[in-house]
Amino acid sequence: MSTSGESGGVRRCGVSATTLRELERASGGLASASIGAMEQELPWFRRLPADQRASVLLVTQTGVSNFVAWLQDPTEAIRLTTEAFRSAPRDLSRWVSLRQTLELVRVAIDVFEQRLPELATGEHERAELKESILRYTREIAFAAATSYAAAAEARGAWDARLEALVVDGIVRGDAEESLLSRAAALGWEQSSEATVLVGNAPSEDPPTIVYKVRARAARVGRPVLLGVQGSRLVVVYGGPAEERAGQDAAEGLAEAFGDGPVVAGPTVASLAEAHRSAGDAMSALRAVVAWPSAPRPALSADLLPERALAGDPEAERRLVESVMLPLVDAGGALLETVDTYLEVGGVLENCARQLYVHPNTVRYRLRRVAELTGRTPANARDAYVLRVGLGVGRLAKARGLW
């Protein structure tokens, strides 16, 4: 490649000044020919609205005109190729994907390779132009990738802020339509059931947290929304609440949390009700310290005794409804039997002697208690729930709450 200066009539690129002027005059025709080839070869390009095709034409014209300047000074490659994309509308990357952009570049390269050598004054210039086309279009391709990467980063940052607002609204109990529309913008299916998980964040680096949660969500096949609030991580995941599938999803996502307990709220019918799941989960997280052997994740419904002891009125109400009232409605014998059974330490024969009944009668009554409350008195954890539930129920009755 020639390195002679202006005095010899040849630029540093080895292309004569005459040829460069011809290139400048032909730039408009080259851009139009490129657009024509795109319309002919790319069906998706033909389906674009006129204003979007015009935007592509603008980028192409800028790229062609910059090619002449680039030939004169190749060190300007990065600035000139990037300017081609700066002139495009901001939303260009929304309706033309990176793959499609590279298809456009490929078509333009073909047109350039066919048309530009005709403007050369000799074989040496033709070879020089062909090599320059390849080098310049390579820079264009890299500039396109950089432009799309920047757009993706900007959208990612915006999505992260939007997601944090949605999760914060759920935690605060905000069920407004704006929350649902923001979630829809993030791709959340409005009819999907929702469950809230809370626990400690695994690190202080937000990108690391996002990666871990989304990786786990992909493994269990559930959509998620997540937010980091100080040292606390809140994850809302969607999908059906079948017992096994829901448990597997909760256990899989719990692995993305840091050390310490993880609590799952109840599964609700839609995101509009997710604040109820979040409220239960937050209450249970504050109370779980009272149950050192709690599973991970623990269900907020399994922490009703601890939540009631911590002063959660919702937990008190649910204990009254699930433990006290069914036994009261069934008659005094069941309530007396479970009280006595718990007082004698779960020894069935001692309970029968205290009540002056046959041990089989006690067995039958305890089975009825299990049927009505879902709690088996012979199980240590269930016995604790029953004892606290009965105590809370009596306190509520003394206050005239039932």
UniProtKB/TrEMBL annotation:
Domain PucR C-terminal helix-turn-helix: 334-390
Pfam families: GGDEF_2, HTH_30
Domain spans labelled CdaR GGDEF-like: 173-287
Family in the record: Belongs to the CdaR family.
Protein name: Helix-turn-helix domain-containing protein
